Amino acid sequence: YECLTCVDSVGKIITIANQKGGVGKTTTAVNLAACIAASERETLLVDADPHANATSGIGIQTPAEGRSTYELLVGDQSAAAIVQRSQMPYLSILPSHINLVGAEVELVAMDQRETRLRLALEPIRDRYDFILIDCPPSLGLLTLNALNAADSVLIPVQCEYYALEGLGQLLNTINMVKKRMNAKLDIEGVLMTMFDGRLRLSNQIVEEVRKYFGEKVFRSVIARNVRLSEAPSFGKPIILY
Ligand code: ADP
Ligand code: MG
102 and 69 in contact (C-beta within 8 Å)? Predict the structure, then answer.
């Protein structure tokens, strides 16, 4: 299909993952969620990163005590109890909190430690057209939970030296998840971020990634843009900023 919102979707879950930090996961999660919501599709943004940048990026400073993705994964809060409306119609969020750092360790000893997010989202899934999950920069249990819960994974890749570094490991993890727990997991696509058309390097990297991923690379490329890096400090997605 030509674009995500050209198709009818019920509770399609897209995880945004890349274990490298600073490649544009959160920027993609926040702004894609806001744009899908702007097209009047009920959208849920799930912040699965203890840094909580997606949470603050859409304007929620600290979630109410005991109501974050930490309690969702490790405690006994339901998704319905912690979900919050954002400043945009059609856009809700399951906010994160720094205490989610502990989940990576606490989950190890828990039952269904790799499927807790999927189970938690199941009861509210059909309230939304799209659910986007923002991941931390690691391939630990939080990212595994997000991959297990997903229909597809969207991989942001920064137009930088070593763009392909670590992607082999990510693909191995995706294949392992497909084999063991979530056979339907699909690669939604690879999104080139922070593209600078004036740099030959940027163009070379896009070519290199296209050689490796072929048709899976989105035709749309995200340019480097100062406004995109300023918007989070105002708690606004780019279309409001
Ligand atoms: P990740 O979630 O993968 O760690 P972020 O989305 O937080 O990455 O992006 C890393 C940094 O780069 C942030 O400061 C963000 O504001 C900035 N950034 C991301 N995308 C762009 C872009 N297209 N243009 C300019 N700055 C960007
Ligand atoms: Mg991030």
Answer: no
Element (H, E) at 105: helix 103-106
- Provide the CA 227 distance to its chain's centre, in angstroms: 20
Whole-angstrom distance between the N-terminal and C-terminal Cα of the chain?
A: 29
* 179: enclosing H helix or E strand: helix 167-180
In whole angstroms, what is the distance from residue 188 CA to residue 166 CA? 18
Q: Is the pTM of this model over 0.85?
A: yes
Task: Indicate which residue's Cα is closest to atom 9 of ligand 1.
Answer: 24
Ligand 1 pocket by C-beta < 6 Å: which residues?
21-27, 53, 137, 193-194, 222, 224-225, 228-229, 232
For 192, half-sphere exposure in the C-beta direction (CA atoms, 13 angstrom radius) is 29
pLDDT per residue as tens digits for the range 72-97: 999 989 999 999 999 999 999 999 99
What is the C-alpha to C-alpha distance for residues 96 and 75, in angstroms, rounded to an integer?
13
